[in-house]
């Protein structure tokens, strides 16, 4: 039997979509309002860390949730929570902190923390809003998710 388990974390951070090598006008034309504020934009995000593997015969668990909580909380507190990613996180010195880049870097940084576990960190999913999210997978794929609401009327 192969199972997955995910643990949800909430983080607050700020970011700015901005390429240092471009002038402000080009950044604003490319990224819109998210490039304009030099102090960034704040947001509250939900990050899901998804583990997969076979249950331990003795414990019946793929991985202990307390282990996930302890290790991921430390990573988030040190590098993400209440940070301005463009300034406070070395991984975004030359990379725009878009949801897909944040999810990818979260996966890359969290994976070694669980090298001693049998479970694999299969994915990190980041919810930016109900209509904006990204997922980074262990195989290197990264997906960006957009939602659009609309109403349609029809004559019956």
List the total number of helices: 4
Q: In percent, how much strand structure appears in the residues?
A: 25-35%
- Helix coverage percent of residues? 25-40%
Give the helix/strand class: alpha+beta
What strand order characterises the main sheet? 3-1-2-4-5-6
Q: What's the Cα radius of gyration?
A: 18 Å
Count of DSSP strands: 6
Low-confidence stretches: none
What is the 3D shape?
Answer: globular
Give the terminus-to-terminus CA distance. 50 Å
Q: Can you summarize the main beta sheet?
A: 6 strands, mixed
The average pLDDT is: 93
Order of helices and strands: EHEHEHHEEE
Structure in words:
This protein has 156 residues and is α+β, with helices and mostly antiparallel strands. It has 4 helices and 6 strands. Strands 3-1-2-4-5-6 form a 6-stranded mixed beta sheet. A hairpin with a 2-residue loop joins strand 4 and strand 5. It starts with a strand and ends in a 10-residue tail after the last strand. The mean pLDDT is 93.
